[in-house]
Structure formats: structure tokens, C-alpha cells
């Protein structure tokens, strides 16, 4: 059965790589841009993946927003964990359906949205954000896209302690992740993963040092993910001039069972 655009649906309105928008379809209202207006009534009842013409004659594509579209839209005003890094975090940390995940900090909620979709209705994400303005903004973002049922949000400094135990993965995007390695080990299940995202090598080195000091962690490794788009055109295919190169270093480690802590 074909899924149709409804009053209240979110749509991804695409003109080109730099001009695209996620909007909520509301009957009787319009989408406005400098390339023309689109009546939402003209979308309701039609399938995703259509082309529509604005009142000024410009052709737009109308798609269903995927997790990457939503993640980027959430982070347009703040720094986010890029999709290329988020995908690696999910795979390397073994985050999937039914997982219980602790995250900090929440930021815009972009990575939280990816984690929420990954763990599904049988899993849960517990996310900590110390800044009240970021917490409030992330809450609005998650509510906007209906991603709150399996997410618990705390406006709290995670360095004060993690409330949950028996956790499947801990994902950190903090200024001082090395201060949380012992606490992450305490709440994680044996042989489960910590993923720490840091923009600088100095932060990464301190984190790796802390992970390697007391025998609580094994399989410690750090990755940097690079992404380059290829423009495929007849007789002139080449890489794009710009690429998403360094965004951050991601350090992974797995909990070891120790006799005394």
C-alpha cells in the first residue's frame, strides 16, 4: 500500500544540495521560498517522491525525510555529529533494536534522533545535557519529529553521575570525556562499548590515556572518518572540490570484567 502525504506529515522539500527544507504539511497553508510558493493542499493525498512546480515555475522534489535529513536540519544552528560519524558509532558500538543507550551531551538532539531510531520501540535512550538552552532546544526538536517515546532527557551534568545501570552503550560528546571513563564502566554491561567523540587530538589522547590506566577497558581504538562525494557526469566525473574531511575523532573501548573496582 502506497504511503501518502497527510495533513500533519513532515516533508523534505528539495531544490538542490544547498537549498532544501523540512516542513510540516498543514492544510490551507503554503511553503514560501525565493523560488516560489507551494500550496500544501497540492501535496496532501499524493505520494512521497513527486515533483511539484511552485507558482513561479520552479520544480521542487518532495521526499520523505530520512534520519540524515532530520539530523542535519536539527543541527543547522549548532555543531552536530555528522551522519558519517553517527553511522560508525552505531556499528562499532553495536547499537541496534532493543539497546539501552546513555548519551551526553544532547546538543541539538541530532545524534539523539539517530540513536532513538536505531534502538526502536523496544530500546531506550537516556540523554544528559548540562546547558538549559540546549536541553530546551533539543526537547523541541525531538518533539517536532515524534522522537520522544523512547527518549528520557535530563537537564543535568553527567559528571554528577549516571542514573541508569545495565546499559548497552555509552556515547559521549563532551569537553572532558576522560573524566567519565570510570562512571561509564560502572553502568555498562560487560564487553559493551563506550564511544567518545572529540574534535581535537589532545582530548582524544587524554581519553585514551584514562581508558588504558586501570585494566577496565579493552579493544581501545580511535577512528577518523572522511567522506568525499563524487560528481558523476559523462566524460567529466571527478571528486567534488570540497569534502567533509575532519569532523572529529571517535574513540571506542569495551568494558572488561575486573575483580576489584
CATH architecture of the largest domain: 3-Layer(aba) Sandwich
The CATH homology group name of the largest domain: Vaccinia Virus protein VP39
Radius of gyration: 21 Å
Structural domains: how many: 2
What is the strand tally?
Answer: 15
Strand line-up across the major sheet: 9-8-7-10-11-15-12
The portion of residues forming beta strands comes to 25-35%
What's the number of helices?
6
Low-confidence stretches: none
The N- to C-terminal Cα distance equals: 56 Å
Mean pLDDT: 92
Helical coverage, percent range: 10-25%
- Name the shape in a single word: globular
The major pleated sheet works out as:
7 strands, mixed
Q: What is the chain-wise order of helices and strands? A: EEEEEEHHEHEHEEHEHEEEE
CATH topology of the largest domain: Rossmann fold
Describe the 3D structure.
The strands form 4 sheets. A 7-stranded mixed beta sheet has the order 9-8-7-10-11-15-12, with helices on both faces. The chain folds into 2 domains: 10-63, Roll (Vcp-like ATPase, Chain A, domain 2), CATH 3.10.330; 68-255, Rossmann fold (3-Layer(aba) Sandwich), CATH 3.40.50. The longest helix is centred in the middle third of the chain and has 13 residues, at 132-144. The relative contact order is 0.11. It contains 6 helices and 15 strands. Helix content is 23%, strand content 29%. The mean pLDDT is 92. It has helices spanning 67-74, 83-92, 110-119, 132-144, 181-187, 201-211; strands at residues 10-14, 20-24, 30-33, 36-39, 50-53, 59-63, 100-104, 124-128, 151-154, 167-172, 188-198, 217-223, 230-231, 238-239, 249-255. It is globular and about 70 Å long. It has 261 residues and is of the alpha/beta class.
